[in-house]
Amino acid sequence: MFKRIRSYCLFGIKAVPVSVEVDASQGLPGFTLVGLPDNAVRESRERVVSAIRCIGKVVTGFRTTVNLSPADLRKEGSALDLPLAIGMLVSTGELAVPSLDRYVLVGELSLDGLLKPVRGVLSIAMSLPKDGSVLVIPRANAQEASLVEGLNFICADSLKECVDYLEAGGNSGMCIGGGLKELCSPDACDVPDFENVVGMEGVKRALEVAAAGAHNFLLVGSPGAGKTLCARCLPGILPEMTEQEVLETTRIHSCARRAGDSGGFKPVTARPFRSPHHSASMVSLVGGGTRLAPGEASLAHNGVLFLDELPEFNRSVLEALREPMEEGSISVSRASGTVTWPARFMMGAAMNPCPCGFAMDPKRVCTCLPDARKRYREKISGPLLDRIDIQVSVPPVETKMFEGNPKGESSATIRERVCRARAIQRERFAGTPYKSNAEMSSEKAFRYAAMSKPTERFAIAAADKMNLSARGYYRLLKVSRTIADLRGNGNVEIDDLSEALRYRAYG
Ligand SMILES: Nc1ncnc2c1ncn2[C@@H]1O[C@H](COP(=O)(O)OP(=O)(O)OP(=O)(O)O)[C@@H](O)[C@H]1O
Ligand SMILES: [Mg+2]
Ligand SMILES: [Zn+2]
After folding, report:
1. Nearest bound ligand to CA 361?
2. What is the CA 204 to chain-centroid distance, rounded?
3. What is the distance between the alpha carbons of residues 389 and 507, in angstroms, rounded to a whole number?
4. What is the fold, at CATH topology level, of the domain defined by 194-397+406-430?
5. pLDDT for 92-120, tens place per residue?
6. In CATH, what is the architecture of 440-507?
7. CA-to-CA distance for 286 and 288, rounded, in angstroms?
8. Which-ligand-closest: CA of 375?
9. Are 364 and 352 a contacting pair, CB within 8 Å?
10. What is the per-residue pLDDT across 262-311, written as a single tens digit (0 to 9) for each?
11. Which atom of ligand 1 is nearest to the CA of 309?
């Protein structure tokens, strides 16, 4: 009997409908699988036959042909196990499912018939047509599916449970997605608080401005000055994610999880802070590879990508970040087509000024040869530096500042100011694709950073003196706009400009 089962395959972040067509007929027993399966799909027959045997049914002894359509799309991963198993059961007459057409199945099977989670379920749930279709998934994927409001889905722990639900038909086992309303608020307990950072007022302020306008930032200073510490505090002052952002980011994380990662998958409700090690490869940073998974830059979507020890990163890896920093997305081309992942992140970086680390230290002497210092700086290309709006030097904190373990301003207080500044930007950019000052185009920067004539003269004179490029000048305007927003001021004033000019320690 010929049967068609609906399923989905991932292509980048997109979920593409796939039908698993199974035809089991009398004849010389055999199994043929066509339709561009990858190795994991090809191996699924072994898992499926064993899982089916575990529930006491037999599907061998038939001449079985399976076609995965559309035939020109490469099918990857193990998510087609479940549709294949159900397909073999119905086509051999072992199982009768009322209105089989309304079910869309994904799931990996183990040899003993347990259902294991697969990646990208949120993408699949979001692209499921709202025509009464029912998504059937492993239970470990249930949280993702329930993020889609009104989605009809069935989750099961095993093939047996799934077969029971399908056989009963109707609404048996049916759940309905509740949307984002039921989301718990993020717990940010492992983020250090700015109140425990002694001194460093200038750096804290620079990070506040960076967070307020989503500007890229670079911290340069001696070893042990507190660069990494300050950057790690940053998530504590970033504004909450909107529902749209939660969906966008969770979707990417759902595509990146390894199939077979058991345990519940939590939606991403706090802005991601990704800090890949400097030995990271191109694939792990921008995505791709055989698994065609998103990289760190995409996992940082709507959050922060923090590159500690910036000069230690492979130069070509850093250069690959230029595209997403400009476009907000990454495209990876492969023989089977081009996949695009969203990647709109705030880039943060930290580094020492020279190989020994003390070139900017008032108390220590740098022992590097001028040539070594130059080579060290050249590890980071000009165009990359040019995209970093806020560059600050981090002076070492004087030891006497630590006396009595003084407390500074708390992250929560700083965050309130950041959120107010972001609210102003939301209003400003309503109806445009921009969300923050850092994203706005040059001509918008010119329009929104309104200045009085004398202030403008000051800006131009300063830019002239500092030999700013055209982009550097617009960058100055954007940062000034954010500083004015933090003060709740409509116009950019000389004070805002002079603070923005200070954030150019390195470029
Ligand atoms: N201002 C500060 N207040 C409190 N603790 C601090 C401060 N500065 C540094 N520290 C402490 O010093 C340690 C080292 O700081 P951190 O790792 O941030 O230095 P770094 O600037 O990143 O150095 P490197 O260049 O070697 O990476 C931190 O774990 C932190 O406990
Ligand atoms: Mg560090
Ligand atoms: Zn040095």
Report:
1. 3
2. 25
3. 9
4. Rossmann fold (3.40.50)
5. 999 999 889 999 999 999 999 999 999 89
6. Orthogonal Bundle (1.10)
7. 7
8. 3
9. no
10. 556 678 888 999 999 999 999 999 988 777 789 999 999 999 999 999 99
11. 27
